[in-house]
């Protein structure tokens, strides 16, 4: 019997833990089943409970499962509601109704919010309910024999399903879809993503609010639908009800679609969450005064003298107010427009997020390694900047257990100068309409891209190190007609030791590229690895000349592997050649090798600039074609000046796993 493999019926003794119920009444211990892992619940629902059932068959499949594993009588449970807890004994199970037939246990044990639930009241309540209560309201009393392990687990699965998975509107889902695949799996994954802090707290709040709204609107819709009589009368009241019902139905469907977006891990961050639209700047103080906020870790007399001389008493700051804080987060939270935060040397641990909506300066007094801000606990972003002109300098930021990136620039301009960023997930994200100026800084450790550049943004990177990330710099797709081209300046950066590419461009696949990919599917590559760098570059530029369409990002993924030799390979080849020459020519060969490396770095910079520029030029062609289709023969100069500004010069790309530059097609 395959059912005997699930649970512990044939094993001596229980395999489940026990827990003491909360409250003042001495209830017996109950089975502890809240700790089940994702794969345990996933396997139970997929293999034993729901399988390939349809939405309309869910209750029937659950009943059939319970008949196989549930003990019909002989066990005790605590019947829990929002009002009371009471100990009951189960004497039978009504499987089709998913209810248990119970009676009060002796001695009578009950805990409630008030003293009105006496023995007589509870007996009367059970008689009104015909002694039947929902199985998911029962918590099985612990039994060390192991005979009721499957019963406790089965009830836990039913309880979890109706609490976290099932929606009241699921019964109206179309039956041609597999209910487990369409609803159960994504909701189960979302539940555990939330438990493991992989979903931003704001998105979790949005999800809960949408669920509550949908439940409320769906209940109103059912009431309106039930109030409409089944006859063909054409009364004014019924016409009004039908119009109201249609409006409620549209609202419910809209919220259901938003919920599905959040439940889909591929879509929830793209379409499901607008977190920062309501973040408001404080502006200037009512008095117009500006304040210097000082955060001392351990203020000594000599440090105070130096700080006063260097930062607190310049000629133009004599009338400024000075405030002292122990916590950098508290100092930033106290800032208004134009304020300045000076953080003295020390290692600061913060449990929270820096939300900077005003134009302020945040600087460390000393070297970055001397002024460290480390995030404690799991959470969302570390730094979120929406201010018109934010400057962060001379700090080391350390991120742990993150959900989102270390620094997000959502609006305005953020300047990052002489900083060290030890990342956890993605590094810096420059959103649409935002601007980043990053100079003389070091960024490493991102499990995603070190820097993500969104369409319509401006990103200037000067003299930085970006290394040991999944990808170095990622430029998001901007070919779609609703996006503006970003402005990118990259000068004298060292981009090295990244797992993937040094720089990656993400854009839609062209129709011809889709055909080429299908023709070469058996080779496993999109471009032949035998092509020369010149041929590869030519194909890159040729790809830009086809008409792009925005494709569904879930359906198609292609990747172009750079065909140029890696820096490490060139060095090895050069060294090998040098060893084979006569000793007298070693100096000349090393000089030639150095020149070859310099030439290759220049080619890498030129290739990136050319491909990004060609993509921007294609976007300009798309706009011109759109205007022509609309009947505009002469384009507005402002509308047509969408071409990307690209300046890529003097950057060094070394030891990146897949090469200096690549294009990711979707």
Automatic annotation (TrEMBL):
One GO term of the biological process aspect: fibroblast growth factor receptor signaling pathway
Classification via SUPFAM superfamilies: Pectin lyase-like
Subcellular location: Cytoplasm, Cytoskeleton, Spindle; Midbody
Domain spans labelled SHC SH2: 40-268
Domain annotation Right handed beta helix: ranges: 391-505
The keyword Cytoplasm appears for this protein: yes
Chief place of localization: cytoplasm
One GO cellular component term noted in the UniProt record for this chain: midbody
Extent of the signal sequence: none
Self-association state and partner proteins as the record states: Interacts directly with isoform p52shc of SHC1 via its SH2 domain. Interacts with TRIM71; leading to enhanced SHCBP1 protein stability. Interacts with both members of the centralspindlin complex, KIF23 and RACGAP1.
Its biological purpose: May play a role in signaling pathways governing cellular proliferation, cell growth and differentiation. May be a component of a novel signaling pathway downstream of Shc. Acts as a positive regulator of FGF signaling in neural progenitor cells.
Name listed for the protein in its UniProt record: SHC SH2 domain-binding protein 1
Originating organism: Spizella passerina (Chipping sparrow)
Lineage: Eukaryota, Metazoa, Chordata, Craniata, Vertebrata
């Amino acid at each position: 019997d395959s059912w005997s493999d699930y649970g512990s019926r044939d094993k001596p003794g229980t395999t489940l833990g026990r827990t003491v119920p909360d409250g003042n009444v001495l209830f017996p211990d109950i089975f502890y089943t809240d700790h089940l892992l994702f794969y345990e619940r996933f396997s139970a629902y997929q293999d034993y409970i729901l399988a390939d059932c349809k939405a309309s068959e869910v209750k029937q499949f659950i009943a059939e499962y319970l008949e196989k594993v549930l003990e019909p009588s002989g066990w005790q449970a605590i019947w829990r509601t929002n009002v009371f807890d009471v100990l009951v004994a189960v004497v039978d199970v009504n499987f089709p109704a998913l209810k248990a037939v119970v009676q009060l246990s002796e001695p009578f044990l009950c805990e409630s919010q008030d003293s009105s639930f006496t023995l007589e009241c509870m007996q009367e309540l059970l008689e009104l309910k015909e002694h039947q209560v929902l199985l998911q309201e029962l918590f099985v009393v612990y039994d060390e024999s192991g005979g009721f392990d499957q019963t406790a687990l089965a009830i836990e699965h039913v309880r979890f399903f109706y609490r976290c998975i099932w929606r009241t509107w699921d019964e109206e889902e179309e039956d041609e879809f597999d209910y487990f695949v369409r609803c159960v799996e994504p909701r189960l994954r979302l539940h555990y993503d939330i438990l493991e802090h992989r979903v931003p707290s704001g998105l979790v709040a949005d999800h809960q609010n949408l669920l509550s709204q949908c439940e409320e609107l769906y209940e109103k819709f059912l009431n309106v639908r039930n109030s409409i009589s089944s006859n063909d009368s054409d009364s004014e009241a019924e016409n009004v009800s039908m119009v109201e019902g249609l409006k409620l139905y549209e609202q419910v469907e809209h919220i259901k679609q938003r919920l599905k977006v959040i439940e889909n891990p591929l879509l929830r961050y793209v379409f499901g969450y607008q977190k920062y639209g309501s973040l408001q700047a404080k502006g200037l103080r009512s008095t117009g005064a500006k304040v210097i906020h000082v955060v001392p870790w351990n203020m000594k007399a000599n440090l105070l003298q130096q700080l006063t001389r260097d930062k607190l008493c310049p000629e133009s700051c004599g009338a400024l107010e000075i405030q002292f804080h122990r916590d950098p987060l508290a100092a930033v939270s106290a800032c208004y427009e134009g304020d300045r935060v000076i953080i003295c040397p020390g290692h600061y641990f913060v449990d929270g997020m820096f939300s900077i909506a005003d134009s302020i300066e945040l600087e460390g007094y000393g070297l970055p390694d001397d002024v460290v801000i480390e995030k404690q606990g799991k959470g969302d972003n570390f730094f979120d900047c929406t201010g018109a002109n934010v400057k962060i300098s001379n700090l080391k930021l350390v991120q742990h257990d993150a959900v989102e990136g270390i620094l997000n620039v959502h609006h305005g301009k953020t300047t990052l100068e002489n900083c060290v960023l030890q990342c956890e997930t993605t590094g810096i994200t420059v959103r649409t309409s935002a601007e980043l100026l990053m100079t003389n800084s070091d960024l490493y450790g991102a499990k995603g891209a070190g820097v993500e550049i969104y369409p319509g943004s401006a990103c200037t990177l000067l003299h930085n190190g970006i290394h040991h990330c999944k990808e170095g710099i990622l430029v998001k797709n901007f070919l779609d007609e609703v996006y503006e081209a970003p402005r990118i300046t990259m000068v004298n950066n060292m981009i090295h030791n990244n797992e993937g590419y040094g720089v990656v461009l993400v854009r839609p696949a062209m129709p011809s590229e889709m055909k080429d990919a299908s023709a070469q599917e058996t080779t496993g590559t999109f471009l032949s690895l035998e092509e020369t760098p010149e041929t590869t570059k030519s194909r890159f530029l040729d790809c830009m000349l086809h008409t792009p369409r925005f494709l569904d990002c879930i359906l198609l993924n292609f990747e172009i592997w750079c065909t140029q030799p890696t820096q490490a390979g060139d060095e090895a080849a050069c060294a090998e050649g040098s060893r084979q020459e006569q000793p007298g020519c070693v100096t000349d060969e090393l000089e030639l090798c150095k020149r070859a490396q310099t030439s290759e770095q220049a080619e890498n910079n030129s290739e990136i600039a050319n491909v990004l520029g060609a993509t921007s030029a294609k976007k300009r062609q798309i706009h011109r074609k759109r205007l022509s289709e609309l009947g505009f023969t002469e384009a507005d100069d402002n509308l047509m000046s969408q071409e990307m500004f690209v300046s890529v010069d003097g950057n060094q790309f070394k030891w990146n796993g897949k090469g200096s530059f690549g294009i990711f097609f979707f």
